[in-house]
Input
Amino acid sequence: MEELKHLSNFELTAIPPYCFELTARKPLGYHWLTPSEVFSNGILWTAIGLSSGKIVGLRLNSMGDVEQPRVLVAVFSDEKITNEEEGEILDTVTRCAELEVNIADFYHVAEQDRILQQAIIDLYGMRCGKQQCLFHGLVRAITMQWASLTRTRQMQGLLLQEYGRRVAFDGHTIVAWFTPEQIDEVPIKELKETCKLGFRARYLKAIAKSVRDGKCPTSEELEGVPFERAKAELMMLEGMGEYSAEIALPHSERFPIDVWSMKMFWRLFFPHEALPPPQIAIRKVRQRAEERWGKWRGYAFIYVINDFDNLSKLARKPTASAVGVSTKT
Output
């Protein structure tokens, strides 16, 4: 495999507070754009596919600090980048790293909330981040259905191993996402057995066909649609329930709660109540999150699950007004 050449550098600014390191690699270990990307010593190596079909390598690192954030982007390719492709690269990094997302309103909500007060200290400046395209989010959603984090990573890893597009640059080999066109050509049996998708194989195949046939909206189109309507659109796709749709959606209102995360939030919201049956608990947790955090509940979700160890210790401490914090529940 021939190494991509270093073609250019770009410097981008972000709305403070902004922490590149926490945005690029969450404490739980979640990737930013592709599961195969490498993050080491504050530097991220990743790869993206462009609308032209070209795969480019990216090296990103912070050149500033949380209050004066600057991100240096180095671009690697096997051929010259056109002006249109350069614009697409910069737009992708800006949008997916949420460089222009102002979270001041979220922090205002968090400062008044006994759960989030600690999380915004521990994860100061972190952005949730977005997928490059909706199909990547849908793949992630399908592979997270009834699966542990280890199992999800296994399925995603096998999919990338079989169908991902490899590039080598700057001493690393990164596997970019496959396309819906590729998956549409793969037999369901191969997805089920080789990539160990099981029942999910049929769903992934059907979704790939919907995207290929233009029957699925783009992330950008969904962002312009109210949250509930966007969720309803995704739930029309085969295999997409409420939980899966909210994983894939780009909206800040999304709250993709499953049995695992439901238990986490139940301990924080209702520390002195016994856990009811799962569907009842999920409904109550969803309702409380919407009442408590409104349109920022998606950000609250990401902050909480990435800081849960610290927050669960805090939840066991007295929360009366005598300790000087809000008693909002």
Q: What stands out?
A: The mean pLDDT is 94. Residues 134-248 form a domain with the Endonuclease III; domain 1 fold (CATH 1.10.340.30). The longest strand covers residues 5-13.
